[in-house]
Amino acid sequence: MNKKVTITDLARKAGVSVTTVSQILNGKEKRFSDKTVEKVKQLQRDMGYVPDYNAQSLIKKNGRTIGIIVPDVGNPYYAKFLKGVQASAIRNNYMPLIFGTNNNLDVETQYLTESIRRAADGMIITAALSDLDYIDNLLNQNDLPYLLVNQDPLLVGDQIDVMDTEGGNLAAEKLVKSGHTKIALVTVKDPAANVVNRESGFKNGLLKYGIEISPENIIEAELSKEGGYEIAKDLLDLDITAVFTINDELALGIYRGLKEAGKKIPDDISVIGYDDIDLATYMSPKLTTVHQPSFELGLKATDLIIKRINNKNLRPQKVILPVTLMDRDSVKNIVK
């Protein structure tokens, strides 16, 4: 087995001191000649030298890492969110530690404690499953700043949010103005705060037009494509012309289920989703949905937590991002 290249090996090969190599590789290259800087960096590439992460962390008292917890890394919405996280992290020279919980509380708890054990400098937690008192107590006791996404902060603190109530309202308006009054809502059991806001916005949006969804027209499903597929057959038992799903993953599954049952979208049932994942424009027909700025959400969330890591005495930061309706082909106009 080859011996790991050390900073001492690199310094010896370059004919300079270990201190010189350390300073050049830590952004203090202006103190040295261009020739020395280029020689050290070229030898670093040639020798494959990588600075020891743990040693650097001990010296700097900062590992420049952020723990990111999401429910499902395979969900296209979270994939785009994580691209935003990465864009900000790279720009600010931070390393994101990305954890997917698969909507499992025990897994989320493990990742929270592992992030502390591995000395993350801050946490971004989306759609948390854990009790917020537990999260707040655990992270505050370890002096670890955190940011909740898709849930309001437990106490006064940093907040980033999307106008989900408005998004639900936009979906309701689209259906009503297209002539639909017999409408179903597909949601999940024990919804996170952002889903609650979508639901309330949608229900209140319908109430403005005198329409109330009956309890039998509210269907709970697993929050996935499979969940949407499984409940598609239940929609066929309802006297409806349209359905609103609280995310596009559910809509994808419903598309397949309805197609297999011989039903056409939007001729037989109109479908409107939420999130505007990349696949929405590749579905047939193209999915009408509420666009969430998921990339911007990841970008801004990471910006906020890095600012908080660098200055824990900052006043509470708050960012609210808008939503828009993407009017495509999955809602039929039945206005008489």
Describe this structure as you would to a colleague.
The chain has 3 domains: 7-51, Orthogonal Bundle (434 Repressor (Amino-terminal Domain)), CATH 1.10.260.40; 63-160 and 294-320, Response regulator (Rossmann fold, 3-Layer(aba) Sandwich), CATH 3.40.50; 164-292, Rossmann fold. Helices cover 44% and strands 16% of the residues. The protein has 12 helices and 12 strands. Helix 1 (7-14) crosses helix 3 (34-47). The protein starts with 6 loop residues before the first helix and ends in a 10-residue tail after the last strand. The mean pLDDT is 89.
Element-by-element helix/strand order: HHHHEHEHEHEEHEHEHEHEEHEE
Number of helices: 12
Give me the CATH architecture of the largest domain, please. 3-Layer(aba) Sandwich
Query: Level of helix content?
Result: 40-55%
How many β strands by DSSP?
Answer: 12
Fourth-level CATH superfamily of the largest domain? Response regulator
Low-confidence stretches: none
Rounded mean pLDDT is 89
Termini gap: 78 Å
Large-scale geometry: elongated
| Main sheet overview | 6 strands, mixed
The tally of domains stands at 3
| CATH fold-level name of the largest domain | Rossmann fold
| Classification by helices and strands | alpha/beta
Arrangement of strands in the largest sheet:
7-6-8-9-10-12
Global Rg = 25 Å
Strand content: 15-25%
